[in-house]
Task: inverse folding
């Protein structure tokens, strides 16, 4: 397991069995591209991966869900559809441009050959670089230090840089370097790509590939390598699926030579891919530009927890993964559940996008948040077609969205088709964005079109039952209970969306009014303030009966349970209303609901941990809030769900920031004020974090005695601290007793 320090997550030994998990954790990226932490000398299948956002094509989906209990057969898997299901869209793996092999006196360095004297590999969150320091001995007793360093440029989406410093420790032998691209990559174990064009010249190589036949995306990769100060002559080779340049030099004991490889990667998504792009700048120059751009993003989202290195490191690591998960320069595609760290979940955009992943960018990088929402605007036409197909009005978005807005959900699973809450989640994302940024131009030009289409959809989807509207036959956020009526999360959120959209329509003079439905939409609530997750929920058993014995874990259940008879849930639904939607339904009892649903949730979706941390903090259960925060940040480092090798859980990791912002710092931004109800961990010395509100930067510094809020805003902002209003601006900070 990686060792956590404040700024680095470190692998201290070479362990073959941890290669695939650590490849996910050690992904370098910039939102446009994600490059898994495979080795320069060899990119093994399942470990190597280099993905461009939105470069998607068709694969054969190898999956065999097994229905051997009543729940699986009747409520989870549609076996008929399973029989017909074969192809699925997926992100496609690019040529492996990391390829760089270093041979000492004819023996190539591979970690599994020769002898490793020392090994340290780490991701450095301060500069987004992956570093590997190795002292290696070949079979002839030649000992060499090699220090690899690489980054995906935050300054230019298309640029990837690698450097290897090679220092002979006890010899002056001949060193051979080969550097280029391995074209033999696979996606989901399948060969999807084919080479259209390639060449090698001087110290460069170029590979132009077709990324699959369905969508026909193309990519190209140009590599340029030089060794300093030796600057040897290069020759070119193209054999065995590898295209590369080769150079040799005679080393001097103790003298370091730097191999610098610059890579330019591009796709037909955004530009002509037939041109070569030779980058001859030095590594240091490209690094400086990258570092400056990265720090602009990272300084805004960085959270400092003083007095607890584990939590401090965990949140920073999670924030690093959030920073590399978002495309800051285009809206071709959007935030996906594994970011660009692996192939699992095929790079689809889910509801995680607007509800879980978007907030950090709304509060720290609003331009990126706007780009994320523009993706939905670009998919609107398809969403309208989807609604029409379903015989409904307005727009109905795909639960799993790919590059063209088609529904890409795994057909045989019953629940995703019913998770129509996606159509409220997207609206929530727009409202949340507008509330915090005040970006009226976006709301007017794009947001309102989406919001009104979504409200049209809901107006045609609700059913009049007696004197109230109900939303029937849905799956809420908890996938263990498909086919329910009046899911709490869905109904509460839809009402809010209808009300807000009506309010905005008035503001912009749009002739739409959804008040009648909003006011008469049924909101589940029982005596005593408990909110039933859906109609009849409390009549189900509080225990989980088991039957069958299928390989349930594979399908995201903790056991072979008969979930349809049980109150045991996969992930929060009701508790999201309080924690992520910041609603406190009248006459409901937050603490009672939290006590109840915490016990019923088996957290087999990682999307449980961050909301739980917030609910625990809101209710003053700080130890519990802490444990959930650690699970949120360390979900993949500890491999809690035993599938980290498939890619990190982006929607969970990003919750670390939100749990700190919303749970610990206790901040909720409303349109006209910032509400603050903090809950500090008693054993922490202090917390520092930043956020943006209405275009201005705010900084929180809190400890167990005081809470300080500073801003650069020239206009006074109303801050309501524990119910008491205070005006804050660049001349007047807020300092309150805790
Ligand atoms: C969760 C969904 C989520 C998806 C992608 C599933 O396991 O239950 O809520 O959208 O993973 O993260």
Result:
């Amino acid at each position: 397991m990686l060792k956590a320090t404040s700024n680095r997550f470190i692998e201290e030994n070479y362990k073959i069995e941890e290669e695939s998990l650590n490849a996910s954790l050690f992904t370098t990226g910039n939102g446009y591209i994600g490059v898994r932490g495979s080795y320069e000398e060899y990119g093994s299948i399942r470990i190597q991966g280099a993905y461009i956002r939105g470069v998607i094509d068709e694969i054969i989906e190898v999956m065999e869900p097994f229905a051997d209990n009543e729940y699986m057969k009747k409520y989870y898997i549609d076996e008929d559809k399973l029989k017909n299901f074969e192809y699925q869209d997926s992100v496609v793996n690019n040529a492996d441009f990391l390829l760089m092999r270093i041979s000492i006196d004819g023996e190539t360095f591979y970690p599994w050959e020769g002898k490793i004297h020392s090994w340290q590999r780490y991701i450095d969150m301060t500069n987004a670089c992956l570093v590997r320091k190795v002292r290696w001995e070949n079979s002839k007793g030649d000992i060499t230090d090699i220090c690899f360093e690489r980054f995906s440029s935050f300054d230019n989406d298309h640029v990837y840089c690698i450097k290897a410093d090679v220092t002979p420790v006890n010899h002056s032998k001949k060193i051979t370097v080969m550097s280029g691209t391995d074209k033999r990559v696979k996606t989901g174990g399948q060969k999807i790509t084919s080479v259209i064009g390639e060449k090698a010249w001087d110290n460069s190589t170029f590979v132009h590939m077709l990324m699959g036949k369905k969508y026909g995306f193309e990519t190209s990769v140009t590599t340029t390598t030089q060794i300093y100060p030796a600057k040897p002559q290069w020759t070119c080779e193209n054999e065995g699926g590898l295209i590369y340049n080769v150079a040799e030099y005679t080393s001097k004991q103790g003298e370091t030579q730097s191999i610098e490889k610059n890579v330019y990667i591009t796709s037909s998504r955004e530009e002509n891919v037939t041109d070569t792009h030779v980058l001859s700048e030095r590594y240091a120059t490209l690094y400086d530009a990258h570092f400056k751009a990265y720090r602009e993003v990272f300084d805004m989202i960085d959270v400092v927890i003083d007095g607890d290195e584990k939590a401090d490191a965990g949140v920073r690591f999670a924030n690093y993964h959030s920073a590399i998960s978002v495309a800051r320069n285009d809206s071709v595609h959007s935030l996906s559940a594994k970011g660009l760290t692996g192939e699992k979940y095929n790079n689809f955009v889910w509801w995680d996008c607007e509800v879980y992943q978007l907030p950090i960018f709304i509060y720290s990088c609003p331009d990126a948040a706007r780009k994320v929402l523009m993706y939905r605007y670009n998919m609107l036409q398809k969403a309208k077609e989807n609604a029409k197909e379903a015989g409904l009005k307005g727009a109905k978005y795909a639960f799993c969205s790919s590059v063209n807005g088609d529904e890409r959900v795994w057909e045989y699973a019953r629940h995703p088709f019913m998770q129509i809450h996606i159509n409220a989640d997207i609206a929530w994302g727009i409202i949340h964005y507008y509330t915090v940024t005040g970006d009226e131009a976006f709301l007017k030009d794009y947001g309102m079109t989406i919001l009104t289409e979504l409200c049209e959809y809901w107006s045609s989807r609700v059913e009049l039952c007696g004197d109230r509207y109900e939303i029937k036959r849905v799956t809420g956020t908890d996938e263990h209970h498909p086919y329910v009526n009046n899911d709490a999360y869905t109904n509460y959120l839809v009402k809010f969306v209808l009300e807000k959209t009506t309010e905005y329509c008035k503001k912009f003079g749009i002739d739409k009014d959804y008040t009648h439905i909003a006011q008469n939409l049924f909101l589940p609530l029982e005596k005593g303030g408990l909110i039933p997750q859906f109609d009849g929920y409390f009549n189900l058993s509080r225990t989980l009966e088991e039957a069958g014995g299928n390989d349930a874990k594979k399908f995201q259940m903790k056991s072979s349970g008969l979930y349809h008879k049980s109150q045991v849930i996969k992930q929060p639904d009701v508790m999201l209303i309080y924690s992520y939607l910041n609603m406190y339904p009248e006459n409901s009892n937050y603490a009672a609901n939290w006590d109840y649903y915490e016990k019923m949730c088996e957290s087999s979706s990682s999307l449980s941990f961050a909301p739980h941390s917030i609910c625990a903090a809101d209710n003053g259960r700080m130890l519990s809030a802490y444990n959930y925060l650690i699970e949120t940040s360390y979900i993949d480092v500890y491999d809690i769900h035993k599938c980290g090798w498939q890619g990190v859980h982006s929607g969970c990791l990003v919750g670390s920031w939100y749990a700190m912002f919303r749970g610990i710092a206790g901040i909720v931004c409303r349109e006209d004020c910032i509400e603050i109800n903090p809950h500090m961990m008693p054993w922490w010395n202090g917390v520092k974090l930043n956020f943006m509100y209405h275009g201005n930067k705010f900084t929180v510094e809190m400890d167990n005695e005081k809470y300080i809020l500073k801003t650069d805003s020239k206009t006074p902002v109303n801050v309501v601290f524990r119910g008491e209003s205070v005006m804050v601006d660049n001349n007047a900070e807020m300092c309150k007793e805790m």
Observations:
- The CA atoms of residues 276 and 627 lie 50 Å apart.
- The chain has 19 helices and 31 strands.
- The mean pLDDT is 97.
- Residues 337, 345, 350-352, 477, 479, 556, 570-571, 605, 607, 651 surround beta-D-glucopyranose (CB under 6 Å).
